[in-house]
Design goal:
The chain contains 14 helices and 2 strands; from the N terminus they run αααααααββααααααα. The protein is an all-alpha fold. A hairpin with a 7-residue loop joins strand 1 (113-115) and strand 2. Keywords: Receptor. This is Opioid growth factor receptor.
Length: 245
């Protein structure tokens, strides 16, 4: 399938988008100096007060542009597209990067997942008392989250956290292949065309794309991408710098 235009622009690092040095809303928000709009919350307030509040995370829509800014306009016109000077400053600030990881953890919990290793990006199902089954069902049912995930993956790449993208994609692929979880047409469609292409590392993007094709044709081959395969792929990248089973 062809790569969607917005994803191709992301892969090309937005050639038609120019930096505006006067814009710094995302930097100030992640520095805990600015409240997001329209929810009027600081980043740290969202991390503390919204964690586990699934009704709020599902029904509100303006916060996602603030938690995961990218160099594109979203539906919240009170937010600001990410600027290249902001990327440089945010990447260089360990406190900001830690807040971005907390934002990722917030959304993973909402989706019924948890980050096992921030170093490698390895994921697993959420642990009790979290009900991962209910969260998975919500993700299947609420298709607007598919667009959110595309934004999350793009933002993580922009801010030097692309190891999380492979960890997320391969976790979902394992759930689909081994347990028939998260295996709806809507999620597969978003994953195969959008999510799997939101990786700027071409070798890694190709490897994951080929693996997805192998899983999708598993009815003929009986191939199953197991949890052990997932962990081995992430371990290999940690040890050698390249995904592999």
């Amino acid at each position: 399938m062809s790569i969607p235009r917005d994803v191709q622009e992301f892969l090309d690092e937005y050639p038609g988008v120019h930096d505006d040095p006067s814009c710094k809303a995302n930097l100030d928000f992640y520095s805990n100096k600015l409240r997001c709009r329209p929810d009027n919350c600081t980043i740290e307030e969202i991390h503390v007060d919204w964690f586990g509040d699934y009704g709020k995370l599902e029904s509100k829509h303006g916060y996602i542009q603030w938690l995961f800014p990218i160099r594109e306009y979203g539906m919240n016109y009170e937010s600001q597209p990410l600027q290249t000077h902001e990327i440089r400053e945010m990447e260089a600030d360990p406190a900001i990067i830690e807040r971005v990881v907390q934002s990722y953890n917030l959304m993973l919990d909402f989706y019924g997942m948890r980050l096992v290793s921030a170093e490698t990006g390895l994921l697993d199902r959420a642990l009790p008392p979290r009900n991962y089954t209910a969260r998975y069902q919500n993700l299947v049912r609420s298709s607007h989250n598919n667009l959110r995930i595309s934004r999350i993956l793009k933002c993580l790449s922009e801010l030097g956290l692309e190891q999380f993208n492979a960890g997320f994609l391969l976790h979902v692929l394992n759930e689909q292949s081994e347990s028939n979880q998260l295996n709806s047409w809507g999620i597969r469609s978003s994953m195969d065309r959008w999510w799997a292409n939101c990786i700027r590392n071409e070798e890694e993007r190709t490897w994951i794309g080929d693996l997805i094709k192998r899983v999708r044709s598993s009815e003929a081959s009986d191939y199953v991408f197991t949890r052990a395969d997932y962990e081995k792929a992430i371990q290999n990248r940690s040890e050698t710098g390249r995904l592999g089973i």
